[in-house]
Structure prediction request, 359 residues.
Amino acid sequence: MRAPRGLHLDYVSPAEYQAARWADVLGVATFNGRHAGEPTPPHPTAGGLSAPAPTVNGTGGIPIAQVSTPVLPTATYVCEVWRCGETAESGQHQGVRFRRTADMLFGCIAVPEARGGEHPTLREAATHAYREMCQTLDAHDYPHLLRVWNYLPDINGDSNGTERYREFNTARRQTLRDCGWPLSGNVPAASALGAPADSPLVVYFLAARTAPTCVENPRQVSAYHYPRQYGTHSPVFSRATVLRQGESAALFISGTASIVGHRSLHVGDVAAQTREALSNIEALLDEANRRTPGARFTLDALACKVYVRRPQDLPAIRRELDSTVGAAPRAVYLHADICRQDLLVEIEAAALCPLPASA
Ligand code: 3EB
Prediction:
């Protein structure tokens, strides 16, 4: 089965993924079914999550980012499947596994942080991941990053007196700068979340040959302009990006939390934090629609990934989402630490919307 050309996103179980036999998969991210303290079960990639159809061109199979951040409420694997509606070609550049069409590339890299190993610190692991991502995109001529997902082991942990998320920000900014990529304005949408301490740094991304529209949130200070109280090197990401792709437009909303201006609001109140994050997402939808002639992105059409710091907050977060988004929101919930200690919930989202032929 093949979708119309352009990106599509599905969240499915490994069994559904296998049964679907999609011929146009561009890339996959899997989220873990492991409970803390349990032995690692065989990963679905080892159990046959491979190229879904023999229409695959070139070498290798589908790139799969294996994220060990657990799924809530019960630990069952979730596959985030990006499809493109056309035949794609797989490849590898250094440590990056990728798959691409004439317009788009999905890539992923996992870098273990090993004491005494090649990348002894998170900063070095992140530098390595970002350098190889940039070099892959340069080598294959996809000059526009649309969206980057970052999963950092022990994101709030300490590294010689500096929070590991801040170390990551330093590496991201310096490496993008060294590779000649922009540090503000035309920068990708992103998420940066925690993963269990024993997992590798996992980075996966979507890039394109055409430039996206980068969208900021009028309610928030741009992340790349955060004051230094949040770290000496500010995070490099846009609040959202929009890519026009023929008859449709794809919207990528960055991880969005209860931040107004640059401050965290509703500290300790998870329901209020969820409502504030959703207000930020609504503001981004308005901006995306204003900046994309012919598009009408709506809350109920979003596919959401919701990051929950404390599993016991899941019912309250779900209640807010259900009442704001209505009916049955397309949402998966993950148990993850969030980059500020005072944030309890963060929501990222993606959506496709048809464009009129004349737009
Ligand atoms: C925030 O708005 C919350 O460092 O890539 C959200 C999305 C956040 C992306 C990143 C961080 C990142 O600052 C945190």
In short: The first strand starts at residue 8 and ends at 12. The radius of gyration is 19 Å. Helices lie at 14-20, 122-140, 164-178, 270-291, 314-325.
